Amino acid sequence: MLRDFSTGVGLLGQGFGLVFRSPKLLLIGAIPAVVTTALLIGGVIGLAVWIDDIAAWVTPFADDWNEGLRAATRFAAGFSIIGAFVAIGLLLFTAITLIIGGPFYEHIAETVEDTHLGGVPEAEQVTWVRSAAVGVRDAVLLVGIAILCAIPLFAAGFIPVVGQTVVPVVAVCVNATLLGIELTAIPFTRRGLKLGVRRRVLRKRRAVTLGFAVPTYLLCLVPLAALVVLPAAMAGGTVLAHRLLHDQIR
After folding, report:
1. Among positive and negative, which fits the CA dihedral 27, 31, 34, 37?
2. What is the crossing angle of helices 128-156 and 162-183, to 10°?
3. Sign of CA dihedral 169, 175, 179, 181
4. What distance in Å separates the CA atoms of residue 131 and residue 179, rounded to the nearest whole number?
5. Where does the sequence pass through the membrane (predicted)?
6. pLDDT of 240
7. What pLDDT, on the 0 to 100 scale, is given for residue 39?
8. Is 21:227 a contact under the CB 8 Å cutoff?
9. Planar angle of CA 110, 115, 119, nearest 5 degrees
10. Which is nearest to 77 in space by CA: 50, 89, 94, 59?
11. How is 144-176 classified by DSSP, letter by letter?
12. What is the distance of C-alpha 57 from the center of its chain?
């Protein structure tokens, strides 16, 4: 498991190497991320400004509790709300960026596969309209899964100690997995493979997928880092998908 996880981390590192050796790919991948980065940061700032009121609104049962317990409960609620917002926001960020920048990321995936991985003879030509339609459909499903996962994790966030230690780790793993599914979309779509196939292939090598997706997810939490991380993750995700589909990871 540790070896597979480190393999996944190495694939992300390979993605960084690919885009840094070709600044054009880095620039192409950063362009669509600019607008969505501004939207995500604006949303986080707005939520942070109003988080006390929101936390009080979702915990009316704590109004009559003593001050210390009430403050601790509402801190846990606020922590969980921000965590859920960031998790869902990152998925939306990636989905919206991929939809807006479909041709850009298609170019990155094609360049990586055709130049560095031997090409895809059976590749389908994916138009921007089809890419956007697939992206919207997949985004709706994956964000729905993220919301369903966020509900029990939000509730578990109220458990003392566990809610502030174990729950965030589980949340990162869940949301990183969903992010990894999004970042490998284009290589699968080029082969005419649907979301269900993508999920099954990635699930078979879960540790490799997490090794790639967890550091990607954590790096995307750094403000503005996604402008560089996303093009690299797209290149690394292409390598990951290609090797899994061709059974080249041992």
Report:
1. negative
2. 170
3. positive
4. 17
5. 25-51, 71-100, 139-159, 165-186, 207-230
6. 94
7. 75
8. no
9. 65
10. 59
11. HHHHHHHHHHHHHTTSTTHHHHHHHHHHHHHHH
12. 29
DSSP class per residue in 74-122: HHHHHHHHHHHHHHHHHHHHHHHHHHHTHHHHHHHHHHIIIIIS---TT
CA distance 109 to 184: 9
Q: Which of 146, 90, 113, 87 is nearest to 234 (CA)?
A: 113
pLDDT in tens, 102-116: 777 778 888 888 888
- Supply 161's token pair: 């100690």
CA 65 to chain centre: 38
**Structural contact between residues 234 and 15, judged by C-beta atoms closer than 8 angstroms:** yes
Contact 88, 150 (CB under 8 A): yes
Q: What are phi and psi of 192, to 5 degrees?
A: 75, 20
CA 20 to chain centre: 21
Of 65, 87, 117, nearest to 241 by C-alpha is 117
pLDDT, mean of residues 63-74: 82
pLDDT tens by residue, 10-26: 999 999 999 898 888 88
3-state secondary structure of 215: helix
**What H or E segment, with its residue span, contains residue 25?**
helix 23-58
End-to-end CA distance of the chain: 12
Range 142-163 average pLDDT? 78
| pLDDT, tens only, 157-197 | 778 777 778 888 888 898 889 889 988 988 888 888 888 89
